[in-house]
Design goal:
This protein is α+β, with helices and mostly antiparallel strands and 297 residues long. The chain has four helices and 13 strands.
Length: 297
């Protein structure tokens, strides 16, 4: 069951096999299966909103999401929400860091140069014949990324993909807002619905007014982002009527589809809501899929 059919049908989407995302010269133990280049002791404590930290591996700026509760999922009165976004429930998450922006072409190229990431099979974007590898677009989000490639990059950088809950808290804050900036869509706060950016990606951080309560950028629109979790359409139903917060939830141990979040330049104002749960075959690659990483102190 795929709940993103309205997205898959409007762009060139590639589904690759595991073999196609394994470097042809890979050793028996792949680089991203080894220990990350940095260990948890080098990650500073995350204690306050707007606290930032720069990764020594890829130069990414990360923002702090302090420990605490937030409201996950769509409110019952949200008529735009799908059943698998409800019920809204309270969740406790330990403190963590998350990339302020999506991983860029420049950063992914560093991982490729280090031999830890596979080169992309596509180097174009929706409207640009030369995108990845072009100096003009080094600070734009890397695209045509499948789940394994995103996971490999985060491991190389000493981080990991965020859980679905971590992604949502970083996007909406503790108050259950519909968008990172508030409860109403705003075309000047994000790249979505083809209304800005000419139907393509924009430079990461181009919409500072669309920042989340923690200072994370581009969490609505630009590109869909892979998360760590497998998708379960009934994941939230078990929390109906819960009186205590759910602690550090994770998706099921296995599945057919991985969760993607945030919408993209192709999506409308409904798709970019913070509670929207997209899901796809993890081998899917397209010009509107990217990712960001997270790490625990």
């Amino acid at each position: 069951m795929v709940y993103m059919g309205w997205i898959v049908g409007c762009a060139s989407v590639q589904s690759t096999t595991q073999a196609s995302i394994t470097p042809t010269s890979a050793p028996t133990v792949l680089p991203w299966k080894q220990n990350p280049p940095i260990v948890s002791e080098t990650v500073p404590p995350c204690e306050a909103v707007y606290q930032t930290w720069v990764s020594p591996v890829d130069g990414a700026t990360l923002v702090c999401v302090p420990a605490g509760t937030f409201w996950m999922g769509a409110a019952e009165k949200d008529l735009e929400a799908k059943p698998y976004e409800k019920p809204q429930h309270e969740v406790w998450l330990d403190a963590y860091w998350i990339d302020q922006t999506e991983v860029t072409n420049r950063q992914y190229a560093q991982c490729v140069a280090a031999g830890a990431c596979k080169p992309l099979v596509e180097t174009r974007s929706n409207t640009r014949l030369s995108y990845y590898g072009s100096s003009l677009y080094e600070d734009y989000p890397v695209i045509y990324i499948g789940w394994e490639q995103a996971n490999a990059y985060c491991a190389w950088a000493g981080r990991r993909l965020p859980t679905e809950a971590e992604w949502e808290k970083a996007a909406r804050g503790p108050d259950g807002r519909k968008y990172p900036w508030g409860n109403y869509a705003n075309g000047s706060y994000a790249n979505y619905d083809y209304t800005d950016g000419g139907g393509d990606t924009r430079r990461v951080g181009s919409y500072p007014n669309g920042a989340s309560p923690y200072g994370a950028l581009d969490m609505a629109g630009n590109v869909w982002e892979w998360t760590a979790d497998w998708f379960d359409e009934n994941a939230y139903s078990q929390y109906a009527g819960a009186e205590a917060p759910v602690v550090n939830p994770r998706g099921p141990e296995s599945g057919e589809h991985r969760v993607v979040r945030g919408g993209a330049f192709r999506g409308d104002y409904v798709i970019i809501r913070t509670s929207m749960r997209g899901n796809l075959d993890p081998n899917t690659q397209a010009d509107y899929f990217g990712f960001r990483c997270a790490v625990s102190p």
